[in-house]
Design a protein that fits this description.
It contains 17 helices and 17 strands. The protein is α/β, with parallel strands linked by helices and 709 residues long. It has three domains: 118 residues, no CATH class; 257 residues, FAD/NAD(P)-binding domain (3-Layer(bba) Sandwich), CATH 3.50.50; 187 residues, Cholesterol Oxidase, domain 2, CATH 3.30.410. The strands form three sheets. Strands 1, 2, 6, 7, 8, 9 and 17 form a seven-stranded mixed beta sheet that branches. A six-stranded antiparallel beta sheet has the order 5-11-12-13-10-16, with helices on one face. Strand 3 and strand 4 form a beta hairpin. Helix 2 packs across helix 3 and helix 11 packs across helix 16.
Length: 709
């Protein structure tokens, strides 16, 4: 029980906190920090991170008050505003002595928390009338008058006791690849079980918290897995194994829910370039890399690209980007209209002599399949779609699979191992789940097993399915399972313009150029794509899009946010990452998840050639922004750590030679007659574009061959 003295101290600290919040975000024509609930958010953060509060913020606030008395003879709350600002500036720059904590760390942490409370609005995630959002011109919801959220098809699920003892096929994962495989197999008459480790989340269960989502996951995310019980580890170059949680960068999380990453993705639907399938032939093999050609060519995949575009649903301009391979028919839907920023960039591209055009998207631009057109909301990527217009596994292929009556879906269930026979035939899977605090396990037999859990978890599953015949894991006789992990290195530039270039039309990304995908000077291996970026959340603008010389707090900081949000353009893109065997997935020898299963251990970094290509793209992004009329431009990226995350790929690469690959050209694990992979794991290289359309196309191809077998 707190004493009266403790209560008085807390009240004193709260008054200091309120005073600080109102100097970090002062009142002008728009509300102050305290008016917008910043203090309540700070108190909420203190409850979530008591160590940060007790050991940094509370002693810092007390010392701030003491510093005010020492310097001015008055408590902080009694100082004039210019005195408060001067003292805060001194603390920000470490111009104070004998503090019990780092003054700079105290200020930086308090500032970040305050800005999250003001611009991020995490406590009111779905608030539509947030004053700070209005101030900068951010509109989170759709522009139409659609009643929200649009109704979703409720997906029926099975409990353990409702499952069959045996299925024609068991599919591990209900994301992009798994949902396609489920539909193709179920529609062919096969009895199919789809096992998803995440939950079926309706729109309002995913949430709109601006600091807990797949665009900015500072304290959590909005899909799964749970933050407790599902760690991974990261192995540093020095050999130290450290635990990393699902919302942290080293985890390299992709959404784990029904639909997988397609539930919250940005939905860019690019085909790989024909030369993306023959990188080693075109460029040679850089030292230290594992670059090689695919065992298939663009022409082998083109019919399945077409099928993915039409059956899942892509909007785009078939007259754009004509150098990226032939296509048999146009997109099923026209491209979304261009944004204001894209218009400026289109004019600049023409001036530069660059080819540029619309971005194809797995988003309805017109009503389709009983779902409406995109509402152009301001928070697309990282969030669920309020109009259900974003086409993913959860609302397209999985719906088709379940409608056949041949497909069962079980959620919140892990496949802990694949059972095999003689190291050449999969006999079934072992399931584990937790219900009301009790661990349940069950074995299910299968005629075929299709692994579609994402490049990290698919590799983990094969490694954890060791047997007498394969003591190091399924398909791992040559030690290749888990190697060549890759995602995408990103780089680009921001540009500040004299007049607004943002009109608030989501998803924002609207124009792209592939001018630098291949054939770059200076011996660059491959290249990449540049596009304007998705609509920025206000808190992301504060964290990432203010120039280095922009004020970040006070009246000037508030004005900078208000005046630059709509006038800042952003061009960036992924490069064709050069795979390396040191970037890999192993299983941890020390850490297990809540079910006692060894977790994935990640390690490695990107190849130096990827960094070179990333620097080139940043230069070209800067050039594009200058040509578009920017008055200030600054580059960002590339970064050199391990690259996986939402575009993870490569750990079970396909190939014709069993000694140099894990799966054959059809996606079947070498040496097996009935074990298949339908996700980005099989990618030999990951293209200089978002990989989801290639995952979908390969899944159609693999599932077709499985049915024929």
């Amino acid at each position: 029980m707190r004493s009266d003295t403790d209560v008085n101290h807390l009240l004193e600290l709260r008054s200091v906190l309120e005073a600080v919040a109102n100097r970090l975000i002062p009142k002008d024509d728009w509300p102050s920090g305290t008016d917008e609930g910043v203090v309540e958010y700070l108190e909420h953060r203190a409850q979530e991170e008591p160590n940060t509060w007790m050991h940094l913020l509370e002693p810092g606030l007390r010392q701030l008050d003491s510093e005010a008395i020492t310097r001015y003879g008055l408590p902080f709350t009694h100082l004039e505003t210019n005195g408060q600002d001067a003292l805060l500036q001194a603390v920000e720059h470490g111009e104070v002595k004998d503090w019990p904590v780092s003054a700079k760390s105290f200020f930086a942490t308090l500032l970040e928390f305050a800005m999250e409370g003001y611009y991020g609005s995490p406590l009111q995630g779905g608030a539509r009338e947030r004053a700070s959002w209005k101030m900068v011109g951010f509109r989170p919801g759709p522009i139409s008058g659609t009643d929200l959220p649009v109704p979703e098809t409720d997906l029926p699920q099975r409990s353990f006791d409702q499952l069959r003892d045996s299925y024609d096929a068991v599919i591990v994962g209900a994301g992009a690849g798994g949902s396609v495989a489920a539909a193709v197999l179920a529609e062919a008459g096969m009895k199919v079980l789809v096992v998803e480790r995440g939950r079926w989340l309706r729109y309002d269960e995913i949430g709109e918290d601006h600091v807990r989502n797949h665009r900015l996951s500072r304290y959590g995310h909005n899909t799964g897995p749970d933050l407790a019980g599902y760690p991974r580890t990261f192995l540093t170059p020095s050999g130290e194994e450290r635990v990393t949680q699902p919302h942290e960068n080293d985890y390299h999380n992709n959404a784990m829910t029904v639909g997988g990453g397609t539930r919250v993705y940005g939905a860019q639907a690019w085909r790989f370039h024909p030369d993306d399938f023959r990188m080693a032939t075109r460029y040679g093999v850089p030292d230290g890399s594992s670059l090689c050609d695919w065992p298939i060519q663009y022409d082998d995949l083109e019919p399945y690209y077409d099928r993915a575009e039409w059956e899942v649903g892509v909007s785009g301009d078939s007259g754009a980007h004509l150098t990226r391979g032939h296509r048999r028919r146009p997109y099923p839907m026209p491209a979304l209209s261009r944004t204001l920023e894209a218009d400026r960039l289109a004019q600049a591209a023409k001036k530069l002599g660059w080819d540029a055009g619309a971005v194809p998207l797995l988003i309805n631009s017109i009503p389709r399949d009983g779902r409406p057109a995109c509402g152009r909301c301001g928070q697309c990527v990282g969030f669920a779609c309020p109009t259900n217009s974003k086409n993913g596994g959860h609302n397209t292929m999985l719906v088709r699979a379940l409608a056949t009556g041949n497909c069962d879906l079980v959620c919140e269930t892990m496949v802990e191992r694949i059972d095999t026979e003689g190291g050449k035939h999969a006999t079934g899977v072992r399931l584990v789940r937790e219900v009301s605090g009790q661990i349940q396990r069950r074995r299910v037999r299968a005629g075929h097993v299709v692994v579609a859990a994402g490049a990290i978890e698919s590799a983990r599953l094969l490694l954890n399915s060791a047997s007498v015949e394969e003591p190091d894991g399924i398909g791992n006789r040559n030690g290749l399972v888990g190697k060549n992990l890759q995602g995408h290195v990103y780089s680009g530039a921001y540009g500040l313009f004299d007049d607004p270039v943002q009109d608030g039309l989501g998803p924002g990304v609207s124009i792209a150029t592939h001018q630098f995908a291949h054939g770059n000077a200076g011996g660059i291996v491959g290249g990449g794509m540049l596009a304007n970026e998705f609509t920025r959340l206000p808190i992301i603008h504060w964290y990432r899009a203010l120039s280095s010389d922009a004020p970040r707090w006070g009246l000037a900081g508030k004005a900078a946010m208000r005046e630059t949000y709509s006038r800042t353009g952003h061009v960036q893109g992924p490069i064709q990452e050069i795979p390396t065997p040191i970037a890999r997935v192993r299983i941890s020898p020390t850490v297990k998840d809540r079910f006692g299963i060894p977790v994935a251990q990640l390690s490695g970094s990107v190849h130096e050639e990827s960094i070179r290509a990333g620097k080139l793209l940043a230069e070209k992004a800067e050039e594009w922004l200058w040509a578009a009329g920017a008055v200030q431009v600054w580059r960002v990226g590339p970064w050199g750590g391990l690259s996986a995350g939402q575009h993870q790929a490569g750990t079970l690469r396909m190939g014709s030679d069993p000694a140099a690959s894990v799966t054959d050209p059809l996606g079947r694990v070498h040496g097996y007659d009935n074990l298949w992979v339908c996700d980005g794991s099989v990618h030999v290289t990951n293209g200089g574009v978002n990989p989801v359309l290639t995952i979908l196309a390969l899944a159609f191809r693999t599932a077709d061959h499985l049915v024929k077998q």
